[in-house]
Amino acid sequence: MQDNYHEDLTFDTIDFTQQAFVIGDYENCRFIQCNFSAIDVSDCKFADCEFVGCNLSMTKLNRTAFRDVVFKECKMLGLQFDRCSQFGLSFTVDQCNLNHCSFYETILKKSKWSNSQFHEADFTSCDLSGSVLDACDFLHAHFERTNLEKADLRSSFHYSIHPASNRIKKAKFSLSASAGLLEQYDIEIDRSL
Prior knowledge:
Layout: E1 5-7, E2 10-12, E3 25-27, E4 30-32, E5 45-47, E6 50-52, E7 65-72, E8 90-94, E9 112-114, E10 132-134, H1 179-182
Parallel strand pairs: 1-3, 2-4, 3-5, 4-6, 5-7, 6-7, 7-8, 8-9, 9-10
């Protein structure tokens, strides 16, 4: 067994800005209240792992693999998921802050994201088809050539999605937030009627 292969381990309250993080493969591991802020986890593979209450802001993700990973209550500012290994890329997020992240050209079909912030995130050419984006805040997020077909955004808010420049066939939106689909047209909607 290689020294850089880790399986079924729990890493609790470790500050990896002070203690070296071992680059390698992590399978079925849990990271609880760990600090990864601005460290380099390039070339790591995380499979069936869980990150709870961790700070991953500005972490370097060149060729990093996330396969069936769960992020819960994590701070994840400025991550560049477009630099990750795209093979098998899949993760769920719950109660996380992903402001200023880049999802450029990533394929994240059937993702399940809930109660999270994506302020000023870039979803250009991202494939989120079939995803459930539950109660997520997309304030000033950028959607351009984004595939949202069959995605469920009914409980999400603050998004501005131009129907002519994104794929939204059979996507679900709530009536109260549907103004975000018409914002580009500079029209006024009277909600009093």
